[in-house]
Amino acid sequence: MAISGRPGPKLKPSNLKYMAAAVVLCTVCYLIGASRRGGAAAVTSVAVSCNVDKPSIKPKPNFESAAAIHLDFSSHHSADTQVTVANDTEASVSHFPRCDPKFSEYTPCQDTERSLKFDREMLVYRERHCPEKEELLKCRIPAPHGYTKPFRWPESRDVVWYANVPHKHLTVEKAGQNWVRFEGDRFSFPGGGTMFPHGADAYIDDIGKLINLRDGSVRTAIDTGCGVASFGAYLLSRDILPMSFAPKDTHEAQVQFALERGVPALIGIMASIRLPYPSRAFDIAHCSRCLIPWGQYDGLYLIEVDRVLRPGGYWILSGPPVNWPVHWQGWNRTREDLDEEQKGIESVARSLCWKKLVQKNDLAVWQKATNHLHCKKNRKVFRKPPFCQGTNPDKAWDTKMEACLTPLPEVSNVKEVAGGQIAKWPERLTSVPPRIRSGSVNGVTVESFEEDTKLWKKRVEYYKLINSQLDEPGRYRNLLDMNARLGGFAAALIDYPVWVMNVVPVEVETDTLGVVYERGLIGTYQNWCEAMSTYPRTYDFIHADSIFTLYKDRCKMEDIVLEMDRILRPQGTVIIREDVDVISDVKQLLERVEWDTTMTDHEDGPHVRQKIIIATKKYWTVPAEGASPSTIWE
Question: Global pTM?
Answer without folding.
Answer: 0.86
